[in-house]
Design a protein that fits this description.
heterodimer; A: 441 residues; mainly beta; Porin; 20-stranded antiparallel beta sheet; 7 helices; 57% strand; B: 512 residues; Hemocyanin, Chain: A, domain 2; ten-stranded antiparallel beta sheet; seven-stranded antiparallel beta sheet; 10% helix; 55% strand; elongated
Amino acid sequence: MIKKIIFSLSFCLIASITIHAQQLGLYFLDGVIQANHLNPAFAPKQKVVNSFPGLNAGFSTTLGAYNDFVTVNSEGVGVLNGDVVMQQLSDKNFIRGGFNLHTMHSVIGKKNWRIIVSNSIKFDTYVNIPRDLASLAIEGNAAAVGQTFNIGPDLNINAYSETGFGFMWKFGEVNVGGKIKLLSGLANVSTDKTAASVTTDEEYYQLEAMTDYRINAAGLVDIKNPTDLSTFEMDWKLDEITFSDMFDNLSVGLDLGASAKFIDKKLTVSASILDIGKIKWKNNPYNFYSQGAYRFEGIDARDLVEEDELSFEGTLDTLDGIFNFAETNSTYKTSLPTKAYFSTNYKIHKFFSAGGMLYYEKYRGQNFGGYALNASAHFSQVLNVGLTWSSVYKTSSLGAHFALKVGPVQLVALTDNIMAAMKPYDNQNFNAQFGLNLAFK
Amino acid sequence: MRNLKTIKALAFVLAICIFFASCKNFEDFNEIEEIELNGEYAIPLINSSASLQDILDETGQQNDLSGLVIEDDGSMKVTYQNEAITQHMSDFFDEIPSFPLVIPFNSNQIPFDIFENVEVKQFNLKAGTLSFDLESNYEENINVLITIPNLVKDGIAFNVTQTIEYNGNAPATASIPPIDLAGYAFNLPNGELEVYYQANNNSGDNLPINPIMGMAEGWDYEYMEGIWEKDTISLANDTLDIDIFENWVDGNISFADPSLSIMIENSFGFPTMAQIETLKVITGSGEEMILESSLFDTPLYLEYPALNEPNTMKQTVLTFNSTNSNIADVLNSKPTQVIYSITAVINPAENAIVNGFMTDQSTMSIALETELPIHGSASGFEIEEPLESDLSDLDNIEWAEFKIITDNGLPVDLGIQLYFTNDEGEKIDSLYNGYERLTESAAVNNTGDVVNATQKVTLVEVSAERMENIKQSNNLMVGVTFSTVDGGNTPVKILTSHQLDVKVGMKVGVKN
């Protein structure tokens, strides 16, 4: 069973690794339509810009690089090394990731204003694994008899459609933008109560569980065996998505931004707040709630022996049911990961600029911060290349961006971690964005 | 301008290369298929609290013919009783064959000697018939009346009439078809049957005819009274199994006051004496021990019902205890079988005056019972019992440590050992060296009664080396050893109210 639990935890890890984090380097690409996702006040200079469907994806984890604790043995089999995992863990261990599939994004306007229309399908994962949970599963509780393990993981896996309608005004050297977003929840698995602890008694190792823990699920996902961690399974049905699903679980979100130029337009100061809002999950909701105290003191010896046969299956069955989840079908809400950016950028030379930015995110009761420093080279409006040093989730990395415009065609590529592009599983964070735009005067 | 175009082209190619290189790098994913684990886990295994009464209620042992018997004061005794061997009337006396009944004269006194060893005085039939063949030499019709005055039903003596019709040929014959005799009773104070016939022609003249040939067929009786001659018959040859010592390995156990009883139930209404031909035990070590008793010095006359108590069972119990026999030595020798052979002597005094009886329901049954009161002492008493178990789940377990906490309300020290055996049942290893005493006897007073329960905490370590041996085994053999308080020197009483609380926690080291 322990092995299954670890595999379950590993699944969360693997699932997250396919997904996203923040793109701090993109903030320094003012004038490229993709930057409009991070600040609605950022608008291309062109009056009509359309972005072809594009993708940005990434992940970030405080656990360490995947290949740090997964090695290949002599038989070519991937092996998760429990000892190494434990060396990497902090008290709280975050795995963030996701991808945004930008199906359409257009910015159209005149000299002093722009209308913004966009749609993205977003898949966003947040997992917070307490060190105690991993410690209990990997190291066990024998060395911590009498101590309490706080084991409730926090989880939010979101798939939703975001359709935005925005407007940007230009007042002299000041741009102000806002975008109202129609959010349609496609699928969600999340927790909204995460208190769960296990204490091992010193007498003869009785286990006492205290829980106030709730897993919610809604939309195109089914939860299988929620009461049994060893067989717990999330059955995503995103491949069964229909047009009507795009209008389920409707909610509204908001992005706000501003930028201003000073000192002969050499200094640009920008700020934005993104993803203000919540999604109410009303379609196909499930809630699995465990609350209370449960003490497992072993089973009756008479139940161990049946017809002259000794079996401990009863013990394991009883342990499986220790959390005693109850199922309901109530609607619930999840908050979007609200983020704030503040940046300055100074044009040092006709061809060069440098800037810095601060990043803050408050999500699921946690505060995340980061910063980035950027240096870019501009060759007319044709080519923009630059390097970004960023630090998010306590991991630092060197990124690069690249924007090339040939006639109306603009190609954009960027990453916040160059090394991860080469060896993604040797790095703790990675993101990349590719875009192809058509920009007309 | 040309440089700018070159830069554009190179940049475009570079971007495409980086894009595909990144995608390729994502394919180099080492999926987790195994986990290297080196954990140590602690879980509670067992939390049992049960009195002996709880256990007995669950097992239903007290309802069996053999098992634990609980007295009103809560004291217990182990009893073993075999299925009674029952002899029916038909086992002692053969069926009555068909036989002829010749009536030569008008008046006949015929001896009723259908049973060899019984002078029958009364005989109640529940089945059977009587038929007759008649023959006359007279050249006229003859009317015949046959009467048996001491064969009566509902107060009326048996009689039957038949006409021998003359049809021009002499002798003339006639037959009386089988007459059902169910419900008729013979009253034979002299042991003789009185049979008469009267033959008359139509003029009323009384004429002798040829001897009447009767035939009795299918006679079965429900009651017979008479005087039985002295006879010896075999009652029982049987073995009583005692499995309490079947798995005994070592040690001694002593029961304070064991007993062995022979219980004979009898509904035959004549004097009978039982003779014990054999009474011995086979011990756990295969030796024979003969039961010796002063009871053998006097005849064992069985109780039997009086004439006015038909179908009444009378019980005779012969109990061997410590005062009249060496039963204590015999039963404390850890017997596994009691072998016995008993015969019965009918009318041993050869009384020729007093009537006895038997019915079709008469039986004589014999059962043996031993009683081993749970009041005594034991020293290092050791038994072993195989127990099936799937040990394949132990593959990843490197070592284990058990913490065993017992609160013992029983006045015995209990030790447990687990032996690990191979396919041939041979012991490969054991859980630990020797026997670990897991419980400490409850404190008792000078009469052997429990005063206080005793707690004991035991840590049992199973090393990695031993665990390797355990993994090679397929089954378990559970060994249990127990001694009463004070090393078996003080007799104690075990009551159903005595309670044993067991808590077991386990730490295991798991590596894979």
